[in-house]
Amino acid sequence: MVKERARILVVGGGYVGMYTALRLQRKLKKELSRGEAEITVVSPDPYMTYQPFLPEAAAGSISPRHVVVPLRRVLDRCRVVIGEATAIDHAKRTASLTTLATEEEGTGSEQLVYDELVLAPGSVSRTLPVPGLAEHGIGFKTVEEAIGLRNHVIEQMDIASSTRDPAVRDAALTFVFVGGGYAGVEALAELEDMARYTARYYHNIRPEDMKWILVEASDRILPEVGEEMGRYTVTQLRRRNIDLRLNTRLESCADRVAVLSDGARFPTRTVVWTAGVKPHPILAATDLPLTGRGRLKCTAELAVDGAPHAWAAGDAAAVPDVTAEEPGRECAPNAQHAVRQAKVLGDNIAHTLRGEPLQTYSHAYVGSVASLGLHKGVAHVYGRRLKGYPAWFMHRVYHLSRVPTFNRKARVLAEWTLSGLFKREIVSLGSLEHPRAEFELAAGGKPPHHPTDDPKGSS
């Protein structure tokens, strides 16, 4: 039984934030109903994004609304606050929050007092000071970016199909992806697959007219699936005429020209940046201990080291891997660990409130799967290597089993079934990003500038 009323604050609504809150509301069901505990979840978005499905959402295989899980529906016993934590003073057990309401009121941040803190803000894109990147780069971490990229690629094909200027056409049909990890490889492979299919509906665009370029600073791609599967992926992508440039960096994309460290220059209207992530800035705005890489120092019980009543997991946490043979190794910041850590984290907070012993997080990494487009993939699971259709099928089965809620599982499965029976959707809904543009023009105003309105791509 909980000794006194416990106020639990969960910062972040991603994998760890949502799953921890979900676990807590199940474990503390009686305490919540008696008013002995309360759970507050602070998240910038009212939904959790299942990121492994972003490439398929970009390719049109899954509807974007089925890639996200509404927090208020799943966390029905929690108080969900849409906003961001800007600073945390754990010594005083207070968090500074900005919400949509505080912005409207202009009153500044509000203070929230808590007893137990779960820090799970995830990560943000790690960018470099590359000239032109802030102006022209496209990220690939959110569902909005995934759908925006899909619309953008199809709009470039529309531009190339209708222009008479060879330079404009060439730039429109050149797509540069930076980063050879999961996000970069899967996004490139799925979108190239989608664009190759879409080209059949254009009278003057052939798949070979498009240039797809993957830039990776190291000497390999997809390190998670092992060296052999990484080499296989390189071979398969090059067979699709995708230009893979290893040991190469993006030096500049100013003036819509991608300049690479090997001297190559590509006029392009599409630069997708997936070159890694870094810890969320909120971690630096706390009084909690951090590692040299800016992550929270954690124990194997997922408590923040040396900070009682503070907990963390996922991308934000440096958690010791107790299954590793070499000492000092940390759990990889990926979804496989995050979901399992959240379960232990929720249990341990409940154990703490009840004065029970804590669990140690222990999970041996089972392997990785990656999709390379429709019916194509690679996998390295339990020491076994799979490629082609079997790996793609395993990728779908695994992620279908992991996507939260039966509701989402059923919807995703239904969409996959229908997409197998009917042709791909090739529609671009770029106007969704500027819904008031047409009305503003009709009302005599000036619609917001859209980069694709200008064939030369000036912004």
Automatic annotation (TrEMBL):
The keyword NAD applies. Residues 450-459 have a biased composition (Basic and acidic residues). Coiled coil: none annotated. One of its GO terms (molecular function) is NADH dehydrogenase activity. Keywords: FAD, Flavoprotein, NAD, Oxidoreductase. It comes from the Bacteria. Residues 439-459 are annotated as: Disordered. Belongs to the NADH dehydrogenase family. This is NADH dehydrogenase. It comes from Streptomyces lincolnensis.
